Amino acid sequence: MTRSIVLLSLLPLILASCDGREAGSNPDSATNNASLSGLEQAALDSGVIANVSEISPTGLYRKRHEAGRDSLCIVTNKDKKLDFALEASFGEGINCRGHGTLRAAGDRLIMNFARSACIVVAGYEGDRVTMPGALDVECESLCSQRGSLEGVIFPRVSRDENVARAARGRKGDRLCS
Question: I need a labelling partner for 91 at 20 to 30 A (CA). Which of 27, 31, 64, 164 fits?
């Protein structure tokens, strides 16, 4: 029964995607993007899914798990650009930690780590940041022992930049200052 309701609620989107127009051909659409399918464009236009390019990534992302806590904060600096800091725990004494500058590019966040040649293009879905499954060897210097940022997911817990600035790391120090 629930499955039928879900399918029926998606019917207008499916029909809108089959109207013969090319993806992104609606000149009135604020999200005009030729790389979107008709269904994706219809979902964006109707508000069923959020346009992540319009959602600021600033805030606090955090996940607790059996091995510790993974945290990512993103804040605006004095030059109105984005800074970030993160740490991920994988058990006692195994962790990754780094900070740097960040640039949003649609559904991607380009993270340039300070004091490292590590650059990561992370996925951004508005409510979470996902690290790619494979990282450059330069990113290994951010981690101790067998730790790795590969595949780490940071779910958003707050959009408030003040919460992100106040976030503390494992050792009690401010993560984003």
Answer: 164
